[in-house]
């Protein structure tokens, strides 16, 4: 299979992928996801085994993209809560006015974390795994997990503060 196949599939199945995404997301704003679907298909064309039709393969990619986006939103909301615990009272006032901005800033901040810190924040802070469970996933000691988690949260707070993220502070 080649990149040319995906180009051909775009012409054949783009409307099907778009229709699926409109119904699946309930939004007409799906162009970016459609585009990303076909970009992923180009990257992964060598792994396409032909066990399903190209159309169902592409729709599966689109579906997974939407699921991943939904998970990320949930992740950011959970992490935001963890970071705000000590300043919960003053943050509630700001949260209503700045919710979207905060989510964007938090997403960008988490993206800046090194892979091990990002993983430990997701496993401990978002998925709420214990230190022992997280250590099994990361194949390290639970003590190392605790240290990494503490450092990751500190680094995350530092990134957010550097970018002017005002969680829990009155202006």
Written description of the protein model:
Helix 1 runs antiparallel to helix 2 and helix 5 (115-126) packs across helix 7. The chain has two domains: 3-70, Rna Polymerase Sigma Factor, Chain: A; 72-162, Arc Repressor Mutant, subunit A, CATH 1.10.10. The protein starts with a helix and ends in a 9-residue tail after the last helix. It has helices at residues 3-25, 31-44, 54-84, 88-112, 115-126, 131-138, 142-162. The chain is elongated and about 50 Å long. The mean pLDDT is 81. It is mainly alpha-helical and 171 residues long.
Number of strands: 0
Kindly report the CATH topology of the largest domain: Arc Repressor Mutant, subunit A
Category by helix and strand content: mainly alpha
Order of helices and strands: HHHHHHH
Query: How does CATH name the architecture of the largest domain?
Result: Orthogonal Bundle
* CATH homologous superfamily placement of the largest domain: Winged helix-like DNA-binding domain superfamily/Winged helix DNA-binding domain
Q: Please work out how many helical segments DSSP would assign.
A: 7
Overall pLDDT: 81
Pfam families: Sigma70_r2, Sigma70_r4_2
Domain RNA polymerase sigma-70 region: 10-74
Protein name: RNA polymerase sigma factor
Organism: Bacillus suaedaesalsae
